[in-house]
Amino acid sequence: MTQPDAVDLIVRDAYLITMDAERRIFTDGAIAVRGHTIVAVGPGREVLAAYTAARTISAKGAAVHPGFIECHNHATIHTARGAITDTISWEDVSAEFYVPYWNTVTDEEEHAGTLLACLEMIRNGTTTFLESGTALEPEVVAQAATAVGIRTLIGDPFLWDVG
Residues 84, 97: contact at Cβ < 8 Å? Predict the structure, then answer.
């Protein structure tokens, strides 16, 4: 009988949505991770038979997208989600929302917005995100992401002139 391979982490009991060629979904899936590398994705019974881990997390049926990355996110603005209607022009969004927002937002508000965004991403199976440069205080984003346990890449803050 073959001994299971050792890994650092197993996420089990997951509604596992793969990004493989068949776009397979496992309603009781598991993921094995060694270091920063996903080494196995599949039905829970198969992954658990093949690997043993120093740490195991039950996803309790939650959706998990192994390796899924949100590559354009404005995490700090999450508390204002829904404030902009679908019928407003880009020029009006800039003048009526963004300028007042960035002139008044506090570090605490950026932190709260990022916490909410990170929790929602984790809930939906995202494992990493890119904050696209709209955080005035990138360290605030890093602290919130670390607290939630999601990986992030944080762009340098930028501002633009609104005519």
Answer: yes
8 A C-beta contact, residue 42 and residue 66: no
Listed as ranges, residues in the chain with pLDDT below 50 are 162-163
Three-state SS at 71: strand
CA 156 to chain CA centroid, Å, is: 19
Spell out a b/e string for 52-67, using b for 16 or more CB atoms within 10 Å of the CB, else e. Answer: ebeeeeebeeeebbbe
39: its two tokens: 């080494």
Residue appearing with tokens 């089990």 = 12
pTM check: above 0.85: no
* Helix ranges restricted to H, 40-106: 44-50, 90-93, 99-104
Instruction: Look at residue 23 in the predicted model and tell me its pLDDT.
Output: 86
Beta strands 151-154 and 51-58 are unpaired
Which two tokens mark 110? 């950026």
- For residue 157, the one-letter residue type is P
Q: Quote the CA–CA distance of 119 and 148 in Å, as a whole number.
A: 7
Task: Name the one residue in this structure whose structure tokens are 């999601």.
Answer: 150
